[in-house]
Amino acid sequence: MNAPTAPLSPYSSALGTENVETHTLSIVVDNEPGVLARVVGLFSGRGYNIESLTVAEVAHAEHLSRITIVTSGPAAAIEQIGHQLNRLVPVHNVKDLTLSGNAIDRELAMIKVSGTGVAREEALRLGEIFHAHVIDTTTQSFVFELTGSASKIDEFVELMRPLGLVEVARTGVAAMTRGKEPT
After folding, report:
1. Residue 47: band (very low, low, confident or very high) from pLDDT cuts 50, 70, 90
2. For the whole model, what pTM was predicted?
3. What does pLDDT average to over the chain?
4. Per-residue pLDDT tens for 152-162?
5. What radius of gyration, in Å, describes the C-alpha atoms of the chain?
6. CA-to-CA distance for 68 and 152, rounded, in angstroms?
7. Residue 164: helix, strand or coil by DSSP?
8. DSSP letter assigned to residue 9
9. Which of 5, 22, 33, 175 has CA atoms 20 to 30 A from the CA of 61?
10. Helix or strand run (H / E) with residue 126
């Protein structure tokens, strides 16, 4: 006899059993009130989670901002979201950087660690290996600044946990395509 399966959470309802892929979307929009809410509403209204979100003005004179979103779901669903984003009035361009195949992405994190003695020395040694910069220090704690891929930051944070991790602040992913062509 088959055991009953637990219902999917609201966040996974749209994912079903299809292959889940992670995609990075770059969206150029008018820099005006309410645009971010409309873009994010497309995701939440369909039950998709946004794993990373960054927004910044990229062309002051034209009043344009770039929204970079990292999300997961079936490829067909992410493609459909891209089409729906393109239909929003304040959206100028949507590009799935994952499909372009030649994108680079980075994230910045500040990681606060508290410790003394051997734990402090080990944390500082690991910080050097990861090319993290100490941007604040006291006799009891310090703050690292680390830039890199999300997986690099995840790995560093996990190494800091047993050494006295206090808190982490992350910017979210910033991404663009390689080469001379604009994203």
Report:
1. confident
2. 0.82
3. 90
4. 999 999 999 99
5. 20
6. 19
7. helix
8. P
9. 175
10. helix 117-129
What is the rounded (10 degree) CA torsion for 167, 168, 169, 175? 180
More confident residue, 124 or 15: 124
- CA-CA distance, 127 to 86, in Å (whole number)? 42
The label of the residue with tokens 């929009």 reads: 29
Are 25 and 51 within 8 A, CB to CB?
Answer: no
Query: Mean pLDDT across the stretch 95-117?
Result: 95
Please give the structure tokens belonging to residue 20: 């889940």
Do 102 and 81 meet the contact criterion of CB atoms below 8 Å apart? no
Residue 93: other Cβ atoms inside 10 A: 14
**Contacts for 38 with CB less than 8 Å, ≥ 6 apart:** 88, 90
Distance, in Å, from the CA atom of 115 to the CA atom of 118, rounded to the nearest integer, reads 8
What is the secondary structure of 79-118 as a DSSP string? Answer: HHHHHHHHHSTTEEEEEEHHHHS-EEEEEEEEEEEE--HH
Question: How much is the average pLDDT of 25-29?
Answer: 97
d(CA 94, CA 127): 36
User: What pLDDT is attached to residue 16?
Assistant: 52
Whether the per-residue pLDDT at 1 is higher than 50: the answer is: no
